[in-house]
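Each letter names a residue; structure tokens follow underneath. Both lines appear below:
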Amino acid sequence: MSLWVNSVIALVVKDVRCELRTRYGLNALVLFAIITLVVVGLTAGQELLSPSMHASLIWIIILFSSMQALASSFIREEESRTAQTLRVFAAPSVVFVGKLVFSILLLAFLLVILIPLYIVLMDVSPQSLLRFVLCMALGSFGLASATTIIAAMVSKATVKGALFAVLSFPLLLPVLLPSIAATEIAFKGGDEMWGYLKVLIAYPIVVITLSFLLFEYVWNE
């Protein structure tokens, strides 16, 4: 078990070092988020947006900002010819969990930058900060869990970026809709959030379980 955990950590560290060396995913992540946020702020102007609008905008920004970065991990392995080496020396379970953890780290990095900027630029604050953070964390975890297996599937395709977005969107709707609804409640205050949080907890459990079972076939084919 300790060898398996060490292998996962080694893979995550390798991906982080590669990302910091090239900064391709990080630059795309940050630039798209900031540009989109500035455009939204300028468009909104002095208008008072509803909690529903704020919740929708913030998740739209998170979704489209993260698309390219979340796909880049598997695509980089195929383009740099290191995927075959991983297939030989790392178990499929190690690769899947390592890439999942790396995706979670990317989204955490995005949230740390995006959320404070959004709150300051849009001059809005959630009524319940703890619930807001919980919504962001669970929604992002669900986002990472679904996109990891999809990124592995499209990494060998010719039109990777477009195919990744097309395949991801239908699978992400079950996590995006409750995330938006729960975030709206966090912005305006209320106690009817638990139903949405149950969906956000159950979704990644189901997706990760199915992905874990299917990943060996997807990765080796």
The chain has a mean pLDDT of 84. The first helix runs from residue 2 to 22.
